């Protein structure tokens, strides 16, 4: 038997939903996928997953800069290219930062740090090294390896 996190009702281990309140008890495989990691604002992610995301983001940024340099773009063209690349990556950056904030039991508004010029990346790196809440909170159970 396990306990429903929403209402506290004792439920059979294999149950997918709580018979008392209807709360979903088993995560779908889809929720544990890359699409969940990059595009969902629900749940929590741990330090390791967030640090990997930051590393991939940093390497991708270097590749974009190499492309700009090798194509010898004008400053106007470079600005357009960087704006487009930034917009493409904005949603995944916000989604992962919100889930990391949830790990601290902070609301998703914490993710607005990504809009602070020059401080956003350093603040997010610092966030990656701070331990999250080891217990279940209102955003879900402690993160496990999800990807």
Largest sheet: 2 strands, antiparallel
Total helices: the number is 4
In total, the number of domains comes to 2
Strand segment count: 2
Residue share in helix: 40-55%
The parts where pLDDT drops under 50 for at least 5 residues are none
**Proportion of residues in extended strands:** under 5%
Shape, per Cα inertia axes: elongated
* Secondary-structure element series: EEHHHH
Secondary structure class reads mainly alpha
| Spatial order of strands in the largest sheet | 1-2
Alpha-carbon Rg, integer: 19 Å
Query: How many angstroms separate the termini?
Result: 28 Å
Fold and architecture overview:
With 147 residues, the chain is mostly helical. The protein has two domains: 1-32, no CATH class; 35-129, no CATH class. It has four helices and two strands, in the order E-E-H-H-H-H. Strand 1 and strand 2 (10-11) form a beta hairpin. Helix 2 (47-70) packs antiparallel against helix 3 and helix 2 (47-70) runs antiparallel to helix 4 (120-129). The chain is elongated and about 65 Å long. The protein starts with a strand and ends in an 18-residue tail after the last helix. The relative contact order is 0.16.
Attribute tags:
single chain, 147 residues, mainly alpha, 2 domains, two-stranded antiparallel ribbon, elongated
Give a quick rundown of the structure.
With 147 residues, the protein is an all-alpha fold. Helices cover 47% and strands 3% of the residues.
């Amino acid at each position: 038997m396990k306990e429903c996190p929403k209402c506290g009702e004792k439920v059979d281990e294999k149950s997918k939903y709580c018979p008392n309140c209807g709360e979903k008890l088993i995560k779908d495989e889809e929720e544990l996928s890359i699409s969940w990691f990059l595009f969902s604002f629900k749940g929590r992610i741990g330090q390791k997953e967030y640090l990997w995301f930051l590393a991939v983001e940093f390497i991708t940024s270097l590749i974009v800069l190499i492309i700009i340099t090798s194509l010898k773009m004008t400053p106007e063209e470079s600005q357009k290219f960087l704006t487009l690349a930034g917009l493409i990556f904005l949603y995944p950056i916000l989604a992962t930062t919100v889930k990391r904030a949830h790990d601290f039991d902070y609301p998703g508004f914490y993710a607005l740090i990504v809009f602070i010029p020059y401080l956003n990346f350093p603040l997010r790196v610092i966030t990656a090294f701070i331990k999250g809440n080891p217990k279940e909170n209102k955003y879900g159970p402690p993160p496990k390896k999800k990807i």
